Amino acid sequence: MNAPTLNASIPVDQIKAEPRPGGRKVYQAGQLFPDIRVPFREVALHPTANEPPVTLYDPSGPYTDPTADIDIARGLPRLRDAWIEARGDVQPVPGREVRPEDNGRVSDAARVPQFPSLPPVRRARAGARPTQLAYARAGIVTPEMEFVAIRENLRREQSAPCVRDGESWGASIPDFVTPEFVRQEVARGRAVIPANINHPELEPMAIGRNFLVKINANIGNSAVTSSVAEEVEKMVWATRWGADTVMDLSTGRNIHNIREWIIRNSPVPIGTVPIYQALEKVGGVAEDLTFDIFADTLIEQAEQGVDYFTIHAGVRLPFIPMTANRVTGIVSRGGSIMAKWCLAHHKENFLYERFDEICEIMAAYDVSFSLGDGLRPGSIADANDEAQFAELRTLGELTKIAWARDCQVMIEGPGHVAMHKIKANMDEQLRHCGEAPFYTLGPLTTDIAPGYDHITSAIGAAMIGWFGTAMLCYVTPKEHLGLPDKQDVKDGVIAYKIAAHAADLAKGHPAARLHDDALSRARFEFRWEDQFNLGLDPETARQYHDETLPKEAHKTAHFCSMCGPKFCSMKISQDIRDAARGEGAAAASEAEAGMREMAEKFREAGGEVAVRV
Amino acid sequence: MNAPTLNASIPVDQIKAEPRPGGRKVYQAGQLFPDIRVPFREVALHPTANEPPVTLYDPSGPYTDPTADIDIARGLPRLRDAWIEARGDVQPVPGREVRPEDNGRVSDAARVPQFPSLPPVRRARAGARPTQLAYARAGIVTPEMEFVAIRENLRREQSAPCVRDGESWGASIPDFVTPEFVRQEVARGRAVIPANINHPELEPMAIGRNFLVKINANIGNSAVTSSVAEEVEKMVWATRWGADTVMDLSTGRNIHNIREWIIRNSPVPIGTVPIYQALEKVGGVAEDLTFDIFADTLIEQAEQGVDYFTIHAGVRLPFIPMTANRVTGIVSRGGSIMAKWCLAHHKENFLYERFDEICEIMAAYDVSFSLGDGLRPGSIADANDEAQFAELRTLGELTKIAWARDCQVMIEGPGHVAMHKIKANMDEQLRHCGEAPFYTLGPLTTDIAPGYDHITSAIGAAMIGWFGTAMLCYVTPKEHLGLPDKQDVKDGVIAYKIAAHAADLAKGHPAARLHDDALSRARFEFRWEDQFNLGLDPETARQYHDETLPKEAHKTAHFCSMCGPKFCSMKISQDIRDAARGEGAAAASEAEAGMREMAEKFREAGGEVAVRV
């Protein structure tokens, strides 16, 4: 998973609200909790469409709301503060002192500024477990749960009755999502709502097989130390195009301070891989890692508000030799670090042995587990092997332990897998991990296209999303080659929005088809602006169109540049429709009789003129 | 299907041989026919790899052979002349006069030059059917068949024993392809070798479920009349990146003359949609089309050497009302033209009624049928509907008629289809079309990403290729929006090379895995140059790498920019492998005992140094 590096250094005050063209930000209030405001992107259609506006899922937060007053030195509004406090199971704590090693022992000169107004740190009261899972099990519907329910429905109550058409492979997707349904899904561990009590700024979202498929984008500091604004802007940019969560994979200097800036300004859940920072604290020497250093790092990040941790507790000592004959060995950074530690000490992975203690830390802040697949395959040749599935079964054991401590859990998956081996990954995960949400990297369906792995992996991501994966971790064109820039991040996010939506369609998610149908009607009726605005990337669609047909007039022309006026198949088939409609439904059945009249009607309708336009 | 338009006008003498970096052109001679030379791209690996060179499929023709003397005013060597003449079943004919309407009645001023040295025109002798299907049925193994056999094997006799690992859904892919196997596949109609007797310049290739999955790229003249060199260069460019066939979708002026230049210089089969030119000849008025004008156009193009024709004979009158209630009606240009004709005259499609006569023309030149899916779905909402499958069953009837006349046949397929409905398309095609090769456009798996339909469709293309589709027609990022430029053509071709190869892997094609494994070994061993050169686009891969790590030294560095030296998982797992290998195979089983020793060996092996690098 690579981390993007952006180019120019950006002043803190440059990050402002920037609405997305072609749509407007709207909010829907809660019913159980009237103070919640669920954001959507609403696309109004041309009057001739005679259709209601289309409501689209929108993870971009206040940054796309023209009325928002953005100041990243202040951070986003802390909309969950009241909800969290109202539950009465958390307390303010002094919080851990920031130490030099937390920022990679950066020199004073190179240190980025601390976030100005550090919020108070929260922790569970003694004996309490303030997790969404604990609440769900106790039968409590939280504001987070209603927020998610409203968000998943995309205001379909305003749309035409939804189409149920798909193969969900045993998922249980309801026609409409109720807060109670969300509670049930969280209670049985089939969905997670990553929402650290120290990240009240986030807009709650759910990751689960029976919800819309989500995508994650990885960001991280560049080798040349970035400005804090640059790091915040990566997160804003990724969510602008549709990233539902963001993982901060930063390493080296300033990572503690930069992480604080990111979390305070992030409307989406933030994930990390704490072993990276722990390794920094021991000078990069894996053998010197200890549980105490790791646990201290978990607390450090949990107090900042990280919403989920990737933890490679499944890389067990006995599994390591299983990778010896692989073509590409161990390709997970965290996995290889733990494997190195295990071998050096010839001891079982301390993350596995002391998993209980890790659970207690996670539960105290409601940090969700993302159980890492440290032994995932790094090549087609290594897919679905003994090492990979031995680890997956172990992740299943650990899931039950975490659930017993009221911790929310996701399971990470591959990797590089040819198409015929993808479904087995989903089936094994469902079999061993009790339907905990699966969170996969791709998978890449071939190894031969460095520079295009957003495509090799979007193929696998769409398929495994269809089979039941709840969140897809994006891959950018720079995978295997270098650090993605801004364009790479956008390309990766859009490739994965495509994969996620294709999966929702194939699963028969009732909210999915509405978007495709609205866009296709616009396409058929030559409502070019509607077609652009309903697309994942209106700017690019408009630009591509204008390269061939720049004139404004052409945006209303009843033909396009591919065929030109004479050949326009859409125009011709509209004539056909007009003619056929003249027949009414009878036409289809009483073909012979109908056809003669159709032919006449057609001539009357001036079909000849139509093609001569 | 859009047609690309390139930018600058190019002088005829500018098109020269331009080798692809990172590999060299090699040829393998035939055994049955020693004079045939089958081209490949050979990638030599770094000496440390201690592996033989990797042989890759190469449709780019002489244009990537530095020893080739390219002169597009002369055309490519006519390597099949002797083979064709030797069969004694064809004769020179005067050939049809070129008429003003053949070039869209272009003015003398705007007319592009005729190809200088027009070759003699061939036609079947009376009663003869010089088709590869006729020869195959007669038990004759042609040079074309041996050429294809050698080409499909990728010189695997030089490689390690092939891995058979996949799910082929009932295909019958052999370990090695023999000329006799090719003959059998052609004889039963399960593969086609598009090879017009008037296109002796082409390097024979096969399209069939039991061969490597192929891809087609569409080109065509731009509205502003292009120079002939520009049009030829589009074909050269598409094949350079891997297009196995090229369809010329040109319309308007000069199309006859430009087509001649393209065919005379094309190493790959050329396909067309003759109804486009026929419509030009009647001033764009579909109602004025007649069978005679259409048949005359078939002869015109067959005499030039077009290798396959898309013919929309399945758009039957009774099926047209079935499209009336679609979201996007009829989106095939040819399909809508015929539908318009049928409605205007209230008559059955003349391509269907007089299919016999069309077959006789096709057989006389060995032009292969590509039976068009004029009623394919243009949106997710319309997929797999009554109209689409009614037409598909009709294409099955027509296949049997064409086969009875020794004509080679492919069947065209969709279109826009959500993932869960893709397999039904393949199953229905196999059920009704006697395993004639399926040739699909994508399918696009969602409608919501204008500007990214090379990705929405690569997902569907990979899947349907896995299920058994023999050739995938590419889609470029400009689909639905405008005319693709050079970059779009490359992006479309590479996305489809990915889809086709992912399909070969999943089917378990014995030639597929070798490429992935070679690249993954290079990746694991940090043989950066090998990784670039084995990729589909070495230039882009190298450029992406160098953006982050420009120094030459880094191309041999044992780490990459994603993790840096401290974190390099590949480096660490190589240490693990070294340690584990010390244990031999025993390690895996006798884990406990083995591990202690491994730990020691590992320290000796200097693992600590390794991470401190």
TrEMBL record, chains A, B:
Record flagged with keyword Kinase: no
Binding site for substrate: N218, M247, Y276, H312, S332, R333, G334, D373, G374, L375, R376, E412, Y439
The keyword Transport belongs to this UniProt entry's keyword annotation: no
Cofactor notes: Binds 1 [4Fe-4S] cluster per subunit. The cluster is coordinated with 3 cysteines and an exchangeable S-adenosyl-L-methionine.
Molecular function (Gene Ontology), one example: phosphomethylpyrimidine synthase activity
Subunit architecture: Homodimer.
Known function: Catalyzes the synthesis of the hydroxymethylpyrimidine phosphate (HMP-P) moiety of thiamine from aminoimidazole ribotide (AIR) in a radical S-adenosyl-L-methionine (SAM)-dependent reaction.
Protein name: Phosphomethylpyrimidine synthase
Organism from which the protein derives: Peiella sedimenti
